[in-house]
Amino acid sequence: MVDVILGLQWGDEGKGKIVDYFAKNYDVIARFQGGPNAGHTLYVNDKKVVLHQIPSGIFHEDKINLIGNGVVLDPVTLRKECDAVAAMGVDYKKNLYISERTHLILPTHRALDKASELSKGNDKIGSTLKGIGPAYMDKTGRNGLRVGDLLDKNFTTQYIKLRMKHQRLLDNFNFHEDITQWEEEFFDAIEFLRGFKIVNGEYFINDKIAQGMKVLAEGAQGSMLDVDFGTFPFVTSSSTISAGVCSGLGIAPQKIRDVIGITKAYCTRVGSGPFPTELHDATGDFIRNAGNEFGSTTGRPRRCGWIDLVALNFACMINGVTQIVMTKADILDSFEELKVCSEYNVNGEAMKTVPFQMNRVNIEPLYQAFKGWNTDISKASDYNTLPAPMKNYIEFINTYLGVPVKFISNGPGREQIVCI
Ligand code: GDP
Ligand code: IMO
Ligand code: MG
Fold this sequence. Notes:
22% strand, binds guanosine-5'-diphosphate, 420 residues, single chain, ten-stranded mixed β-sheet, alpha/beta, Adenylosuccinate Synthetase, Chain A, domain 3, four-stranded mixed β-sheet, Adenylosuccinate Synthetase, subunit A, domain 2, globular, 12 helices, binds magnesium ion, binds 6-O-phosphoryl inosine monophosphate
C-alpha cells in the first residue's frame, strides 16, 4: 500500500514538515521526482534542517528512505546533506537507499541551466539553477548517466562523451564558466556515492509492498509546477503529480491508496510565471514577513497572495486528492478579513477552470471575503477549540473542493498540527 504526499500549489506548501509528521505511520519514505531544486524544511529537536534530496523520513531511524528513479540526483549536494544529517546523529548509511535508475546531475547540467536562463532574457523561468531541466532533457533525450552506471568501468569515458556534447551546447549559447572546481567536487562525491546502498528501486519497493509494508511517496515542487499540467513554460521538468509516483518509483496505480494534498492557507510562488491571486501590496508584504516566505533553496523572496480555489480544484482533479492538509494557517491569525479566489474573470467571462495558457490571458481573480479569526491559533491542538470564523473558512474550502481538509498545521514545529 502506498500513500502520497504532494504539493497542490507552486511548491513550498510545507511538504517536509508534513512528511516528517506522517512518517511514523509508514515503513518506507520515497522521493519520486525532482532534485535539489526542492528545499523541504523540518524542525528536529527545535533545530531547522532543509533537505533537498534526502527523503523527509530520514530522522526516523527505523524507517527506510529511498531516492527513486524519477529523481535527478546531484552527488555533491547529496554528500553535503548526508554530512549535515550525520552531524545530527542520523546513521544514513543504514537506512538510505538510491535507485540505480536515478539520473545524475553533472556540473555541465548546472552550467547549461544558467546558459539557458540567460538566453531567455525577460522570459526566464526563474529556475533554481541546480541543473534540473538539462538533466531531465538528457533523460528524455536518452543521453543521461544513471547512478547504476557508476558501477560500470566505462563510467569516466561515458562522462567525458556527455561532457563534450554539453560543451558544444555551451559554446552555442556562447556561455563560459569555469567548472573545474565543480568537477573536482563531483568526482569526489561520485566516490562517496559508490559506497551507498544502490538498489534496483522497482523490485526493492514492490518487495516491501508485497511484505505488507506501508510506503509514503514524497513529492517535490507542486502541482502547478508540473511539466504537463502546470503553468507551462514556467514549470519544473518533472511529473510532480500523483501520476509521477508510478513512473518515479516503478509501482502500479492500484497500489496507491490516499493522495494527501498540501495547500497553504494562502498561496505563494517563487520564480517567474502567472500567479492570479498575487498581492503586490502591503498585505502581500505582510504575509511574506509573517510567513517568512523566502526560498529554502535559493533564499529568494516568495511572491504571496490569497488562496486560489480555481487552481486548487484543478490540482485536486489531476491528482485524485483524497484528503487535504492546510499549512501555515497561523500566518493568517491577525487578519480582520480574508479573501478566497473562487472564480477567474477571463476577458469578461467568469470561469472556474484553469485556462490553457495562464500567462497569455488576462485573469482577474474574483474573491469572496471571509471574516478573519483574529486569534492566536499556534498553540491549538484540538479542532473544537478553533475559532468559529476559521471553521467557516475551512468548511467553505471543503465544500468548494469536495475534498475534506483533514489536518491544519498551525506552526513550523513537528507536532504543531490539528486533526479534524
Ligand atoms: P516544502 O518545500 O513544501 O517542504 O516547504 P518549505 O520547507 O520550502 O517551506 C515551508 C516553510 O513553512 C518552512 O519554513 C516550514 O518550516 C514552514 N512551515 C510549515 N508548516 C508551517 C505552519 O503550519 N506554520 C508556520 N508558521 N510555518 C510552517
Ligand atoms: P519544493 O519541493 C518552489 C520553481 C523555480 C522556478 C521553476 C523551475 O521546495 O516545493 P527548476 O529549478 O526546477 O528549473 O525551476 O520551479 N521551483 C520551486 N518552487 N518550491 C520548489 O521545490 C521548487 N522547485 C522548483 O523557482 O520557478
Ligand atoms: Mg521548499
